Amino acid sequence: xxxxxxxxxxxxxxxxxxxxxxxxxxxxxxxxxxxxxxxxxxxxxxxxxxxxxxxxxxxxxxxxxxxxxxxxxxxxxxxxxxxxxxxxxxxxxxxxxxxxxxxxxxxxxxxxxxxxxxxxxxxxxxxxxxxxxxxxxxxxxxxxxxxxxxxxxxxxxxxxxxxxxxxxxxxxxxxxxxxxxxxxxxxxxxxxxxxxxxxxxxxxxxxxxxxxxxxxxxxxxxxxxxxxxxxxxxxxxxxxxxxxxxxxxxxxxxxxxxxxxxxxxxxxxxxxxxxxxxxxxxxxxxxxxxxxxxxxxxxxxxxxxxxxxxxxxxxxxxxxxxxxxxxxxxxxxxxxxxxxxxxxxxxxxxx
Length: 351
What we know:
Layout: H1 3-9, E1 14-20, E2 25-33, E3 39-40, E4 43-46, H2 51-72, E5 77-84, H3 93-104, E6 110-111, H4 120-127, H5 144-163, E7 172-176, H6 180-191, E8 195-199, H7 203-213, E9 216-217, E10 230-233, H8 242-245, E11 252-253, H9 264-273, E12 276-277, H10 280-283, H11 286-295, H12 300-308, H13 310-324, H14 328-343
Parallel strand pairs: 3-5, 3-6, 4-5, 7-8, 7-10, 8-9, 10-11, 11-12
Antiparallel strand pairs: 1-2, 2-5
Helix pairs in contact: 2-14, 3-4, 5-6, 5-11, 5-12, 5-13, 6-7, 11-12, 13-14
């Protein structure tokens, strides 16, 4: 498939390639839709198997950001950037300054932030070359606590819809991935009395959660078959797939990971099995809310309160899915697409 076919397939507006070989920089910026405002999305630093994989990832993630902003009620479009390389690289200044120049070339159509493989320190280097960056030191800071709080509130909304009560006390939640978001989520869940079954490829992260929150640890592959009411994937995506679905004993799938469904048909399969799915770009929108708050000078409390409203957003989606008799991921897309379509009557694409 050609680049223009890829862009046209999901309605992308723009893709930018930027190379500075002497600095080891190979970057891709994808802008999906700027109807609601400038495209915002983090910078992912990853060792892709091929350039084509990097392009597809940038396109897929940028579209997700459009829908995430639209359904959360934020006046932002969707974008994403990826840097191809080893994110364990220690000498990072010139690499990220090169990325800053790539961002600056778009004149404000795209705003970046941290993502997988990057940090607020990296964004400081980006800021040396452009003002179109958020999540820097002294700004909104680490978005993980706000993201985790939004996921926690989303899980409570799922419980309310499924069980008629949003209490998580005594419920078992299987958490996959104990990075920053997964760790804070475990704290929120344990604080309400939920029982935790956890896994991560990093043994130190697992031990920390076991020690602090009384969690039970399992091997990474075993998490898909544990007895639990809720499965909370908080690592990489595509964990709901042909291999895992048959092992699920969960009532609910609700976690922070992006692109949890390997393909849309797996969302259909969850629906057919009676497993309630919280669409990932809805439940994990707390990070986007956090940086949107930075752009608009929100207080920390206001950002957290907005993230907490993910609870009500999910309930509206579940009600829409029930009325339309469609899977929840389809209902979420319809709500987001309706807001974008209606907004096109109010303003032009962001320039």
